[in-house]
Fold these 3 entries.
Entry 1:
Amino acid sequence: MEVETVGEKVGEVYRVSGPLVVAEGFKARMYDVCKVGEEGLLGEVVGLAGDRLLVQVYEDTSGIKPGDKVEGTGMPLSIDLGPGIMRSIYDGIQRPLPVMKEIAGDFITRGIEADGIDMKAKWEFNPVLKKGDNVKGGEILGTVQETEIIEHKILVPPDVSGTITDLYSGSFTVQDTIGVLDNGTELRLYHRWPVRIPRPYVEKLPPVIPLMTGQRIFDTLFPMAKGGTGAIPGGFGTGKTVTQHQLARWSDSNVIVYVGCGERGNEMTEVLEEFPELLDPKTGKPLMERATLVANTSNMPVAAREASVYTGMTIAEYYRDMGYDVAVQADSTSRWAEAMREMSGRLEEMPGEEGYPAYLASRLAEFYERAGRVKTLGGQIGSVSVVGAVSPPGGDFSEPVTQNTLRIVKVFWALDTKLAARRHFPAINWLQSYSLYAETLAEWFRENVSPEWTELRTWMMEVLQEEANLMEIVMLVGKDALPEVQRILLEVARYIREVYLSQYAYHEVDTYCSTQKQYDMMKAIKELDDIFHKALDAGKTIDEIENVEGREDFARAKFSEDYKPLLDEAVNKIRNALLGGGA
Amino acid sequence: MKEYKTITKVAGPLIFVEKTEPVGFGELVMVTLPDGTVRRGQVLDSAKGMVVVQSFEGTRGIDTSSVVRFTGDIVKLACSKDMLGRILSGSGDPIDGGPKIVPEDRIPVIGAAINPYARTYPREFIQTGISAIDGMNTLIRGQKLPIFSGSGLPHNDIALQIARQAKVLGTGEEFAVIFAAMGITHEEAYQFMKDFERTGALERAVVFLNLANDPAIERLLTPKMALTAAEFLAYEYDLHILVILTDFTNYCEALREMSAAREEVPGRRGYPGYMYTDLATNYERAGRIRGRKGTITQFPVLSMPADDITHPIPDLTGYITEGQIVLSRELHAKGIYPPINVLPSLSRLMKEGIGEGMTRDDHPQWNDQMYAAYAEGVDLRGLVAIVGEEALSEKDRRFLRFADEFERRWLQQDRYEDRTIDQTLDLGWELLSMLPEAELVKIETKFIEKYHPAYRKKGAEAAEEAA
């Protein structure tokens, strides 16, 4: 993308304070990228004050002194979009970490320059358009097989249009010319896009298709939609990261963008070691074939952490424009907000709540609004779904990042310290969480899984709600004081909690639960409910019901690949024990 | 090198110097007082004609006639293998009366972030000989696992015991210990030193001491010094390093003091908004690097103000470290050592480092069962307080007894008792055998038959008969 530059391009440092450099002697626009010092440390203009520019630098500024050179590039922070993104792992400003390791060794040093995609690799390009075709921005010119799973659609850059005068096929590097338009524009396999500007689309479509995650509590109780937004807040040790990993592994999106924003180094390593090993449930190919990671760990420069979520989002939008369903996992948005707070503090801006800048809410809203299911410029339908982890201090959800996030997102998966302490995982609190997509998606479940789906889901929610009410009474008077019908409800709720909602991420079978299995399990629990009530009518005592033979078989069925016969058998065993054979 | 006598303002630990030539951010600064003593500091903010210096060694005695010299260098630590066995100040100078350390290399203490792509996931079990850690919150080589303590609790004893006993099974490789004291009292430091000397551990240790009466700001440097030494020994000399950092609460207080002096916008409870990032730059200097033999395992100690785990210091720490060992005042009051409350404690790396081939095949399920049974027993204690023990069923009473025995026999051990992992697991099995076998739902039958004392006894009898 060509951008005209303004005025003098080289100036000098006036002041340096941590990641903030004040420069003078040249002009630049807000959010233009600058290079600071001899090493050319990358920075971004975040404020203008008279003749001076406030630059946030993405790298450690030790040794930078007043008078050092500052050079404006005249370009906003942009990333390379083209084949080669899948299977990559980047820092916050799209520098590939393996390349950085090659250049600088095991530790991240300053001033490393690296392209976002390999400029020398050759790709086989198959055009789908031809000479004489009129094209506009976002249209698909042709394809490149990027990985075994992903067919990369080569797009006309969004701001380009014209008539094709030439379009070649064959093997090209991303920088080679693959075609020319009548206005002289050369087409390539890649283009650049500024990360802070959402990529355009024709229109947003309603989110009516669920993003299946294979996690029972999500899919059944609090479903996420393709193109939807969700948040997972929780204190430390409640399983935010494990949940995010599970979503990345099992969600039925075409492309995964995992943004590790200010989190632990070893956690990113775990993802890095694991994703190439894990097989995609649909294709049987390694998950990494359709994933990209943006890893800016907590000890990497804080300004690049701020940029990392935008880098991830821009990559996601790019694949959306090819007509793919993309899932963005951002772990953790709190660290991103803290990076904003830190920069804001250095800029000496008037603080809002808890020192966060007053624009925290609008930045969060802008970010989540980039999600959605859309009709692309090229006429495809694609989506970007975003799930952001939130790390509230002390696990207290009343803090600004959680609250401002909840005002925007439609799905709230509340992690609960108490459940985690009881080792109930995923530690999602079923009373606090919600999904505003449940209504719109009900239609889909009715048509694609079972007409009873919504009914069963509602029933489970009611049982859990009623259980919570009853537990308050139990706390006061003890379980024995409850009428037997209510004790059956407690017992059924226990099955729902311990068998259905509790799911083992590390168990090879239980880690993923298909929609059909979810339905079968729900149905089986409902059947137990009927059996228990009938048994009570038939004169069985509550103790007999609670300790009925077969209850362990029932609980274990989900751990088996071939669960259905085991589940049926367990239900029969329980029925026989309580109601006698053949009932 | 330019010298300046242009100090215009001193505020707390900050020195403002005017009319300077350009000075680099982060540069090391020497301030010479009229009486000749030299104080060190670091450039915090450098603008044309004005520099703000943070003094590591306090500002007492500094006046406007003091001479400020900018060294053009950043803060570095003189590193050498000869550091082992030495006692250094919080800013890296020898204070044991020994000779100066002849540096093999001078390394910036600020440290660089490990490229996540260069890391390798930690998987090796470290046996500390403490049941509560080995059994239920296993420490892994390359992990950062803090102790969340409170004032008056024996966290130092635990740290020392780990330093004495930590080993990786089957390798015979010992740990070198880097001990960094931040603002601890003379008495506590003495306890550490005495123990190091007595057990001969000092030979394999580097000690950095910043005591309670040393300048608070020096504390901001101490962990960075210690971790730089750790990185040097781990990556240049292939040593396995255990870094004990105590007490991070004092470090954070110093950070807050600094932030207040700089008149920054405070975050929660007056701590600066960048405390998370600052702590992370310390804690993240642990781990393993692909292709390098040496490793760095961190054991930071922090005391939770008013035992409040939601206080910003433990809270932010918990978000960065890979788990936490939480000490309990209640257990301590019962006279139990180590008073580790296993319920809120956690080791995130444990799952990859235990089980067959690493500790023992039954370990993961054994752990789930011990945790569940103890949690149940503790829950029941709450109930007993209301309804009395008579109201409990026989089964519940067994759980109650399990929880008591768990604390008295399994948790409780001597400060010099070094239990093997087998002892830890077998003792746990003995306790589990107090419960009805049908209640051991988290353990597969094959492990019950292999390790449950009832079966072992039968097995032993059968073997005897056969003989």
Entry 2:
Amino acid sequence: MLSKNDKKVLTDPLISNNPIAMQVLGICSALAVTTQVKPAFVMCVSVIVVMCVSSMVISLLRTGLPSRIRIIVELCVVASMVILVDQFLKAFLFDLSKQLSVFVGLIITNCIVMGRLEAFALMNKPFPSILDGLGNGLGYSIVLMFVAALRELLGAGKLAGIPVIPQALIDLGYVNNGLMVLAPGAFILLGLYIWAQNSLFPPKAGK
Amino acid sequence: MKFLLNILEKTKKDLFAPGKPLEKAFYAFDAADSFFFSPSHVTHGTVHVRDSIDTKRYMSMVIMALLPPLLFGIYNTGYQAMLATGGPADLVSCFIEGLKWVLPLIFISYAVGGTWEAIFAVTRKHPINEGFLVTGLLFPLVLPPTLPLWQAAIGISFGVVIAKEVFGGTGMNILNPALMARAFCFFSYPASMSGDSVWVAITRDTKVLDGYSGATALGVALGVKSGASVAAEPVSLLASHGFTFEKLAMGFVPGSIGETSAVACFIGFIVLLISGVGNYRSTVGCVVGAVGMALVFNLMATDSMHGLFKMPPHYHLVLGGFAFGAVYMATDPVSSAATNLGKWIYGILIGVICVLIRTVNPAYPESMMLAILFMNEFAPLIDYYVVKAKNQRRSLRHA
Amino acid sequence: MRNDNFYIFSYAAVVCLVCSILLSLAATQLQPLQAENVKLDIRKNIMIALGIIKADEKFTREELNQKFTAVKELVVDLEGNILEGVKPENLTEKDLDTKLPIFQVLADGTVQGYAFPIVGRGLWSTLKGYLALEADTATVKGLTFYQHGETPGLGAEIEQSWFTNNFKAKKVRDNLGNLVGVTVVKGKATDSGRPLDHVVDGISGATITADGVTKMFKVGLTKYDPYFERVRQGGR
């Protein structure tokens, strides 16, 4: 269904060119919304939606887009998308949007979004651009979900809100790790993730 | 003895040398070997980024210097427990009771931390470094005696792996691994690391908050609120809780195992100086900074401020982890500043920040740890400017 | 591609126009739903404080609104006079200095309890919650915190039920009728040597947050005292 090139566009950002792990972009939200799996998941979906739609729009506009106001138009499109997503969350997923608070709005400042528009959507047809947005959004999500799952598990003893630590262990004196709930916990996990990825899939030298 | 040594040397040649069947495990064997005997080859080259002193000799001297607070800590842990439970408070039974609490922590620290060291040494193919002998002993000494052992195990794992090995191993670390391990425990398991009930060794179960509450002197001093009917003077308030200056300096008070006695730390400081491995500049700098900052707070203090603002400077030196940190942690050659002037700046700022955090943010009474870690990060910057200034002066002179 | 000023300006204008139309459309369409959500969230917290629902129970919109019919909303001024025709949801942040919302829970026409918002400072953050009193205006009916940023595992324990439940049935007035509030002590309430009616267990390692809670009780109760004074004298 997908051409070889399309497949590469979609799968490259998952691991080998992951926007967070390899390019270290979008760290801010990776730290802020990952204390629990649920809000992190909603954040991931929001970012994917914003990235796909704005990539498509910019790609459609690319032939007529005056280069002098290129960045402003990109910002305008991304900002509109983000506000739309935020409005929808407030209307339909109120509790989660309360937990995500300002961070949905801050997708605007997420370097991954603007970076992909500049680097890819401006020069490619709409369909590959959507795939690129989807791929990078998924790559972002993989890392976010990894960090969120570990933070919720170690920091609160839950996964997606369901307690998973057996009572027997708690009776033995197990307590949750408070550091994981704080922002440094996310930093450390993120560092470990990057370490693990670099050891398992060493980046090609000279690139 | 000679006989055993010969066997070890022979096995090493036959089994572990390059090309022999157990080649991969050479460094694991080497570590075990050099643990029993002085190694046939001492570490050479720069294991420390900036210090070419033989690591083994250096670390042995630090261990020697750690003995006074260690021995006193063991005794005091037992003594405090006996006070609380009403057991026999003679020297021997206190010491035995203390050993029951302190030995498991030291054992866990060495066993778990040592395992990590070995894993990294084997995978990275370098000899196991003696530096861990010190880290593994420093860590238990800055813990409350009641810390659950599994938390200590996770703490030292963090200290060794994240604070040291990630940066490239001994000598490459920016932060002090033992303090990082403590900081990890402090933020991860606050209930086991702070509050009034963890300092006296009665039970490791943190859920049991009833019973004897061993308020720390810092907590008591903080409790001086304006308008309270109790004396507004921190000194008399401390004394009314049994914390006289002599007692605090000697260390017969609840607290982290090795940190309570400023006198024991001072003896250790002398040992470090005489043996030549220690450097007085950081430590004296800490004292100067702390006294200076405390005096500033004394001048600022008004009635509406809590007791720590009004506490005389010499009390700051004997409270909490200050003395231990100034003698053993601030002098760590790897994570402190390397230049002589840099050591002064580094030490003074640690003292200032320690008293600053302690006084202004009472949520973190154990401020020495935070102050040292904070300055660890600035040590390279301080050195950079000290060296730069020196070079500038020199070039001016020759211009 | 054209790059003259006229083209650029008209291009920008069109993009802006499209975006703004899209956004205003979404905003106006979703506004009622969002306002409803905010209102429901407040109602939920009030009902948790009043003990009508439990914090971990899930309810649909309709059920929550249904249950809230038992609650009567009032606004009083600083002297305790009821301001007719003013609804709590219409109060702005600034109004709250002089106009105080009160929520009465009614059963068979008699008042079973009062809930009102309390605000205070913890160690790091502003603590916001609702405090509910029984009909005698002296006994705590319930307490809930819905916003804070305290240290997880220490100060953040204030929102846990083990902590808030301790407040239930405590007295905010002593036998002489003086307002004393409820004090969060250091350590166990039983060890504090104070009348158990007015103290609750502290949180180990979270003295500053606990002091904040003690203070916000006192401040909130003092603010609402003129109104409760009238209630006690029979005229509400």
Entry 3:
Amino acid sequence: MTIPTSSIEQVIPGQGAMAQPSAKPAKAKRQRFLFVRNTKAATGLVVLGVYVLLAIIGPWIAPYDPSGRSNDLVQGPSAAHWFGTTHLGQDIFSQILVGTRSVMYVGFLAGLIATTLSVLIGVTAGYLGGKTDDSLSALTNVILVIPAIPLMIIITSVLNNASDTLIAVVIGLTSWSWNARVLRAQTLSLRRRDFVEASRASGETTWRIVIFELLPNLTAVIASGLVGTVIYAVLSEITLAFIGITSNDGWNWGTILFWAQGQQALGQHAWWWFVPAGLAIACLGTALSLINFGIDEFVSPRLRSAGKTKLKTAAGHTVRMRIGFTPVLENSAAPHTHARVISTPVMREAK
Amino acid sequence: MKYFLQRIGFYVFTAWAAITLNFFIPRMVPGDPVQSLIAKYKGQLSTDAMQSLYILFGLDQHKSMWAEYVDYWKQIFHGDLGLSFTFFPAPVSQVISQALPWTLLLVGITTIISFLLGTSLGVVAGWRRGSWTDGLLPVTTFFSSVPYFWLGIIAIYLLAGPDSFFPSSGGFDSGLVPAWDQYFIPSAIQHSLLPALTILISSVSGWILSMRNMMVTVASEDYITVAHAKGLSERRVALSYAARNALLPNVSGFALSLGFIVGGTLLVEIVFSYPGLGFTLLQALGARDYPLMQGIFLIITIAVLVANLLADIAYLLLDPRTRKDG
């Protein structure tokens, strides 16, 4: 339900770093950690790592049984119950820990299914063109326009107590279209490039061209699509659990919110009941978005936040540096002290 | 014109696909739940209503799939979506037509405001890259990662209450009857403020981000340099040259993300018990009211298609290239 945060498809073909075939082998070693050196991407990866760890060990380190009842009903956070308790005295901290596994499992499984489908459909449509492209594009656009959440709700409600895996399949099958569209556009811009033409002229099979020439150049787009879909899948799973149409025996963050809403947590001012689950979702989503920004900026350096752009000159003027503009300082004792930006274009970005 | 006809053709095709999907989904699984519901209401259902439900859910064993499909279409064209079990004995079409205006007004107005606001903020953020506006980005990232409904819960917790200005649930004061008068309209507006604010906050960040990125890309195009070289004012270059071109992908993005937004707003309605389609959908889910669920899905899809068509018309007006004949 969020708008995909990636903007890779907006990079004008032929201008991003995508345009260049991969770097020379000698340089590859030095550039290997370039992506991780981006602070946004590094922060995102670290946070995501914590979540993955919790998904694996969460059920073992949870202090209580998430469904186990006790006599502390609707208690606020305390030393015994870090995130407080529910109307049945269940420990919310344990519920969050145990629920992480289900959220991560559905998120990544749905992400993988959707990404595989989008690569198959998007790249095929973009590379083959013609009638195949027309029909696959029409299919993509139809799935894209039909509202996905209501469709998922209808399908899951018909499926009756769907398991996590089934939910992931439903989410995966309904959310591949955006990435397929982006991939098709990128493939279209790649397939007339010289290196593709060259391999076609040397008689390579279509499969080989797609796998060894096109896919390596689409890695960033595919990765960013995967990350975006995982965010979307997590939000969808939590939404489905929140309205209470998925199976009731497991825990995930949506189930916690479902009970909080159903048992009038708001009326009882039990903020600890719904705040932790929401923050857990938000932090996971932010971490994944940060990774996506990292990928975007890696591919299209122009999108980076420009850092400090105001400079003080020796004469005490303040100058704001901008791409595409040359600041020109006036020496006259004009009433305004700021440098006027005059439109002499220098400093175009290297292409 | 050719472009326009192509788009209309596409939407008709999508509507057909959605209706066909709606036809097949209940048939993928054995019809037990519906059968049991019908059995439960057997004494109260008229023969006509039974027949209509049989057609909608494919319970008639003696017909071929194709004959069922033809019947299904006939019924859709008559506007007959079956009987709702939750609001028995009201027909689904009647239940939906009561809930639809609420959703349309809430979502429609909020989405347009959000788009306009987000786009203008994005223009500023993209044009003045490197100033304080870059600080907006982490904040917007956080808000776009939060589920709409959770933000709604927080908003109710923080802002609504028995003695607060914002009511926490419903679409109007319980003592009032829906009418276009001076009592009802202010009450309806007061009740819609908080849901609208929630949708606004969670959806605006996407527009800011995409518009900013597009502005940054456009700002180093040659025609921007030329516009500067001509000595045009900063404002004119930013708005008439950069923003106008950067807007196009955002408008087509608007059409494509409507589906996402509508999904989110249904959930906001549920949290606020707002009398729109989302809340009705929740009631239908609780009662396993399949005819109502299917009807709501169909109506939402068609509403999104119409909104897409409107966005296409806007695109047509903005981009002269699409108006060329040929």
